[in-house]
């Protein structure tokens, strides 16, 4: 029988984890990025659709290119972060369903239905991006998710053949704890939830 995670793990994933804007210069290795994928790929998606496609932007040249897409306040933190993940999605994810969901003809649910393709790909890639952040925290990385960027320009610069569309960005690395502000408040249960 599964047991709740110990408090130390819950602290690392949620309670003391913070969104970071300032980064140390400690690098993030290829091995860490592969370990990160091996964790977040296991998170559930509808019909195991797995539409997320992630580009890890690390080189100075690629960072400069990405900086062209960033809203003002996000530019410097993106250039300073060791890695920025462009969390995107494949608009042809359903072509993989015969392999990923072999016990039903799930491909037929999507083929020829662009609104369903877009809705499913965007929703599930968002879920997968959240799994990426939790996996990153579980590996000792810090995260700085962002939506302040020009998606069209990002897609043109990084996905010119149209095989991926960007959703949001996540800076990854080892945050500078000395530059954190106090945690912003959260809604109370009664403000955000109901039990019916």
Describe the structure.
With 196 residues, the protein is of the alpha+beta class. The chain has 9 helices and 4 strands. The chain has helices at residues 7-15, 30-40, 60-67, 72-80, 97-100, 107-110, 114-138, 151-158, 189-192, and strands spanning 52-57, 83-89, 142-146, 165-173. A 4-stranded antiparallel sheet has the order 1-2-4-3. Helix 3 (60-67) runs antiparallel to helix 4 (72-80). The chain is globular, with a radius of gyration of 18 Å.
**Highest-level CATH class:** Alpha Beta
Task: Provide the helix percentage.
Answer: 40-55%
Here the CATH topology equals NADH Oxidase
Structural class call reads alpha+beta
CATH architecture verdict:
3-Layer(aba) Sandwich
Gap between N and C termini = 28 Å
**Unreliable runs, pLDDT <50, ≥5 residues?**
none
Rounded Rg: 18 Å
Fraction of residues in β-strands: 5-15%
The helix/strand series, from N terminus to C terminus, equals HHEHHEHHHEHEH
Strand order of the largest sheet: 1-2-4-3
Number of DSSP-assigned strands: 4
- The helix tally amounts to 9
Organism: Caenispirillum bisanense
Cofactor: FMN
Enzyme class: oxidoreductase
EC number: 1.-.-.-
């Amino acid at each position: 029988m599964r047991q709740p995670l110990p408090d130390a793990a819950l602290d690392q994933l949620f309670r003391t984890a913070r969104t970071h804007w300032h980064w140390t210069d400690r690098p993030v290795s290829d091995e860490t990025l592969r370990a990160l994928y091996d964790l977040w790929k296991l998170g559930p998606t509808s019909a195991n659709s797995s539409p997320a496609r992630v580009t890890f932007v690390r080189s100075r040249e690629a960072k400069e290119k990405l900086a062209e897409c960033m809203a003002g306040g996000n530019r410097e933190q993106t250039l300073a972060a060791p890695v920025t993940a462009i969390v995107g999605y494949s608009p042809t994810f359903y072509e993989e369903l015969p392999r990923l969901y072999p016990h039903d003809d799930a491909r037929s649910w999507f083929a020829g239905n662009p609104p369903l393709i877009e809705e499913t790909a965007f929703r599930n890639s968002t879920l997968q991006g959240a799994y990426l952040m939790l996996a990153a925290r579980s590996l000792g990385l810090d995260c700085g998710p962002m939506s302040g960027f020009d998606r069209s320009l990002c897609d043109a610069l990084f996905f010119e053949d149209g095989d991926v569309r960007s959703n949001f960005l996540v800076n990854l690395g080892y945050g500078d704890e000395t530059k954190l502000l106090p945690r912003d408040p959260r809604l109370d249960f009664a403000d955000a939830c109901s039990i019916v």
